Amino acid sequence: MNTIIEPFRIKSVEPIRMTTREERTTFLENAHYNLFALDSENVIIDLLTDSGTSSMSANQWASVMRGDESYAGSPSFDRFHKAVHHLMPFSHIIPTHQGRAAEKILFSIIGGPGKYILNNTHFDTTRANIEFTGAEAIDLVIAEGKIPDSEHPFKGNMDIARLEAFIKEKGPENIPLVMLTVTNNSGGGQPVSMENIKETKYICMKYDIPLFLDACRFAENAYFIKLREPAYANVKVETIVQEMFSYADGCTMSAKKDALVNMGGWLAMNNPVWAEVARNLLILTEGFPTYGGLSGRDLEAIAVGLVEVVDEDYLHYRISSTQYLGRHLTEAGIPIVKPAGGHAIYIDARNMLPHITPLEYPGQSLAVELYLHAGIRACEIGTVMFGLQMDGTEKAAPMDLVRLAIPRRVYTQSHIDYVIEALTEINQNKAKLEGMKIVWQPKQLRHFSARFLPINSVQNQKENFSKAFQAENA
Ligand SMILES: *Cc1c(COP(=O)(O)O)cnc(C)c1O
């Protein structure tokens, strides 16, 4: 059977309000063409992110009622600890309110000027927390990881030769930690192979440097190992996960991804000295070590989520439906980053819309049209997000992508078919899409709040006319 069916029935539904193109035009104008400024109630299918947007199961909701909200020593912490420890057997497991809180604590302990933290590709909050301490965040993903249409099965792999060369050059004493992000989010949700995890561990051991996993999408990564690494074809995903973590000395985790909950995270490690300092820092900003930044009920939902996320029927549905979207977009002639990642499909908007130059934001133009045409919200990952330089000038980002991130267990096959149809129609009329210009922006992280106008819009022409008029008469 080839039809992908969701391995669940729906017991509780969340209505979607349907909107017309005319309504969406108004919503978009009011949002200054920035999709972050839309009310989510006016979005038909929201593919902005897979973070914190998962749907919880009946079992998770039942566990919420069991949550014990005692300040210290809650049995909910025991259940959380047991579930995490089963997959990730570290000596110290410290709950936090989300992944970045775990990063903040970890790098406060081991970061600082003159230090280097190496990773396949650092996620933005990881990089920001490292740089905040004065340390440098270095990306060492394999060369294929940066080529959009390279079909390498493990594009998230660490470049082992560059890793060792970097350690030799800077000295192991300046490298407190090596990380591997599984799957590599900033690199397109691409997995890391077990072989590469082992090779990375081998180099780390040689120079006595601990290895941590940025574990956010550990279950998706493990499933890719099962599908693509022949030695693991018949190994249970749960066992693959345990093996992945057996090579690590600790991890940071955002439960908003592969723990199937809406909020939460943890920091785990074997080093008792670091763990002691981490618990003291935890008390300052997150809370007592048996709850961290979370309620007892959150800890319960995570404990159940960790069992459900390694279920192979779930993972089969999860990865097949992302691949189904990727395959149909490719068949429709839409260029995407290949192979399809675990949690998202990335459309290569620069390649799809060659008539729009990077500084006219082809990714933003496509994301705006996707909303206008079908009420689908996606995220530009390109020149709008990365193009603004420190000195206020602007340059094209390496790629102009539009990310379609798929929330876990939220949308059905027919929702995905709707997304495919919308993009196919847009692709047929793509010559009509026009570039955008930014009419206002903040100094940093402009993608969240910048205001745009379509280049040929009446408003834009009026604005240009009045500027020219004022200049002439000044
Ligand atoms: C989401 C994410 C984080 C940060 O987690 P938050 O819960 O959003 O703070 C860190 N690393 C990766 C790879 C992520 O995807």
Structural features, described:
- With 474 residues, the protein is an alpha/beta fold.
- The chain has helices spanning 21-30, 58-66, 75-87, 99-110, 124-132, 160-170, 194-206, 218-228, 237-246, 272-285, 296-309, 312-331, 349-352, 362-374, 383-386, 413-428, 458-472; strands spanning 45-46, 92-96, 116-119, 136-139, 177-181, 211-214, 250-254, 265-269, 344-348, 376-377, 379-381, 401-405, 436-440, 451-454.
- It is globular, with a radius of gyration of 23 Å.
- It has two domains: 21-43 and 311-460, Aspartate Aminotransferase, domain 1; 58-308, Type I PLP-dependent aspartate aminotransferase-like (Major domain) (Aspartate Aminotransferase, domain 2).
- 47% of the residues are buried.
- Pyridoxal-5'-phosphate binds at residues 51, 98-100, 123, 125-126, 181, 185, 214, 216, 254, 256-257, 265.
List the topology elements.
Elements: H1 21-30, E1 45-46, H2 58-66, H3 75-87, E2 92-96, H4 99-110, E3 116-119, H5 124-132, E4 136-139, H6 160-170, E5 177-181, H7 194-206, E6 211-214, H8 218-228, H9 237-246, E7 250-254, E8 265-269, H10 272-285, H11 296-309, H12 312-331, E9 344-348, H13 349-352, H14 362-374, E10 376-377, E11 379-381, H15 383-386, E12 401-405, H16 413-428, E13 436-440, E14 451-454, H17 458-472
Parallel strand pairs: 1-10, 3-4, 3-5, 5-6, 6-7
Antiparallel strand pairs: 2-8, 7-8, 9-12, 11-12, 13-14
This protein binds pyridoxal-5'-phosphate.
